[in-house]
Design goal:
The protein is of the alpha/beta class. The protein is built from 15 helices and 28 strands. A hairpin with a 5-residue loop joins strand 10 (208-210) and strand 11 (216-218). The N and C termini lie far apart (56 Å). Bound molecules: flavin-adenine dinucleotide.
């Protein structure tokens, strides 16, 4: 039973997982419970026993037979805050049961509890062997994580100004890694001052991340947060993986799902957070099977869970900085000095955003200049005017999305219009919206402000006329350049730096359209020369490349 949604309003909200108790905290039938019991061992607890504790890794799965297991985190005073009690035929766990991350909550028994303990390896076997139970468990785990995020349970507190680039960076990192957190915006939140006094913090030390054990991380790097919170999965540096996938955008995640599900030992190394460029999209409407659209974040979260369900390991916040391609197995060099060895490699590092060639870009990056338009950024421009730069689909989506929040959206394009670069459905929505104005032949020529962006000037390239408006948020959707610096010297690239595949240096066709000039190294998605830069094509390439990897590994072993 879910005992504590934080307020009556959210408890009644049908989108709140805690209001969907039968799915979030399901009770198995006696027959299903008997099948689960076959994978574990029965254990009895005399009194209130701590079964697992926040911060542990690799905990087991428990199905309650009698009594109960209370799930709790600690409140601001360090006291247990029980938010659900699993009773007879209900089970423990959430998404971290599919990976090796540190768990978010603790569990303790009520007196006289009996349960079935299913060890991790057996849990995986059970989910595969009993698909009806696997489906109930998977749905419950996803909903539980959504509930934790929604209610800020089992998470950390981020304290800082929402207008500061470092606060936005940390919030984005926690959000995109699906880590529950509560933001105390020092510009707005009445509780913020009390927090600063209590932790003896001064404004120049912000932003800070306050851990559940009250440790304070002062303006930490993303990698430091990932390490402290156990977001990165550990891996054995001595292990040689069948496959290392570099980049967890749609293409890399698809490769991981197919490779892991087909029995290859697979590790994914991601510099930031799963999802890649797609993870920054507020709504993807042209991906097959989602007629009402899906946010890039939700798509990435599901794909990550799917890959981990099949046993892929995910090391996030680890940048690959080099590739040793002279030795076999190949070795990837990480920014923390570590190495990952693999027989085959999939390069899926996509592309990074282009920047404005205007003075002030560096100063206002994250302080008014954004590369994504998600719910997070939309909070910053409520009832204000904003600018979207670019004429592609990502710019169109951003403009349509932001028009729902901002007072007015100005789209700036250098060209004649949108017809040659944007999908027709977006063009129609833009022209139908009284809140969006298209400025053709225009580009930004000045950015002004103090600590944050306050004023933007754009100029009509044909007439030379300029317009300056009080605008604090500009969304840059002007394309991207490939992330291939780390493969330098190992793989052949085209003149723009994208990885060439499918043909050897002398023009001979290679066995796979995704194989690079090095046997066993493949490239998929946006990073590949000539690829179609879309989610579906990246997913397609990531999925089918696995067949070529099998063929390569079989040949290498023969
Ligand atoms: C705002 C926006 C909206 C979009 N909307 C749509 C849409 O509606 N429909 C559609 O089909 N397409 C859309 N696209 C395009 C689509 O998102 C991309 O084509 C797709 O994400 C490409 O996938 P990918 O996996 O090849 O690369 P990416 O998504 O770029 O992912 C690459 C990943 O590799 C990681 N990485 C890079 N270098 C390293 C390194 N050295 N070490 C470790 N990790 C590294 C990055 O952090 C990133 O996570 C949109 C793009 C944007 C920016």
């Amino acid at each position: 039973m879910a005992t504590q949604p934080t307020d009556a309003e959210t408890a009644l909200d049908p989108t709140d997982p805690y209001a969907r108790e039968a799915q979030t905290f399901p009770r198995l039938t006696p027959e299903q419970a008997r099948r689960v019991a076959a994978f574990g061992e029965e254990v009895g607890f005399d009194g209130a026993t701590l079964v697992f504790e926040r911060g542990q890794r690799s905990v087991d799965f428990y199905l309650v037979l009698e009594g109960g297991i209370e799930i709790f985190d600690l409140d601001d005073h360090g006291d247990p805050n029980v938010f659900t009690v699993h009773g007879e035929r209900q089970f423990t766990g959430e998404l971290d049961l599919f990976n090796d991350r540190q768990i978010l909550v603790s569990g303790r028994t009520t007196p006289g509890t009996r349960a079935v303990r299913v060890r991790r390896a057996d849990f995986r076997r059970m989910v595969t062997a009993e698909p009806d139970i696997g489906e109930i468990v998977m749905r419950a785990f996803i909903l539980r994580r959504v509930g934790l995020i929604r209610h800020g349970q089992g998470g950390v507190v981020l304290v800082g100004s929402l207008h500061a680039a470092a606060t936005l960076r940390l919030q984005r990192f926690l959000t995109r890694n699906g880590y529950p957190h509560r933001l105390l915006d020092t510009d707005q939140d009445p509780d913020a001052e009390g927090f600063l006094t209590c932790f003896e913090l001064t404004p120049d030390q912000l932003p800070v991340v306050i851990m559940p054990d009250e440790r304070v991380l002062r303006n930490p790097t993303n990698a430091a947060v990932a390490d402290e919170l156990g977001i990165t999965e550990r891996f054995d540096p001595a292990q040689v993986h069948d496959l290392a996938v570099v980049g967890a955008g749609p293409a890399g995640l698809a490769a991981a799902v197919y490779a892991a599900s087909e029995g290859l030992t697979t590790i994914v190394i991601e510099g930031e957070a799963p999802g890649g460029q797609a993870g920054t999209s507020s709504k993807i409407e042209n991906y097959l099977g989602f007629p009402t659209g899906i946010s890039g974040q939700a798509l990435a979260g599901r794909a990550q869970t799917q890959a981990q369900k099949f046993g892929a390991r995910l090391a996030v916040s680890r940048h690959v900085v080099g590739l040793d391609c002279d030795r076999r197995p190949y070795r990837l060099v990480l920014d923390d000095g570590g190495e990952v060895a693999a027989r085959a490699i999939v390069v899926a590092t996509g592309a990074r955003y282009r920047r404005l060639d205007v003075e002030g870009h560096d100063r206002f990056e994250g302080q008014g200049l954004h590369y994504a338009a998600t719910a997070m950024e939309s909070q910053l421009c409520r009832d204000e005017e904003v600018v979207v730069v670019g004429g592609g689909n990502s710019a169109g989506q951003a403009a349509v999305f932001l028009a729902g929040h901002a007072r007015h959206v100005h789209i700036l394009v250098r060209g004649e219009g949108l017809a040659a670069t944007m999908s027709d459905y977006l063009i129609q929505r833009i022209s139908a919206s009284p809140k969006i104005t298209l400025h053709a032949h225009s580009e930004i020529t000045a950015l002004r402000g103090d600590a944050i962006l306050r004023e933007v000037t754009w100029t009509d390239r044909r007439t030379g006329e300029s317009e300056t408006r009080p605008i604090g948020n500009v969304f840059l959707m002007i394309g991207a350049a490939p992330n291939t610096g780390w493969v330098d010297g190992c793989l052949e690239l085209d003149d723009k730096g994208f990885v060439l595949t499918g043909r050897a240096g002398d023009g001979t066709p290679l066995p796979s359209p995704y194989m690079t000039s090095r046997p066993g190294i493949f490239a998929v998605g946006d990073v590949r020369s000539g690829s179609v830069k879309r989610v579906a094509s990246g997913v397609g390439e990531g999925s089918v490349v696995v067949q070529a990897i099998h063929a390569y590994l079989a040949g290498a072993e023969a």
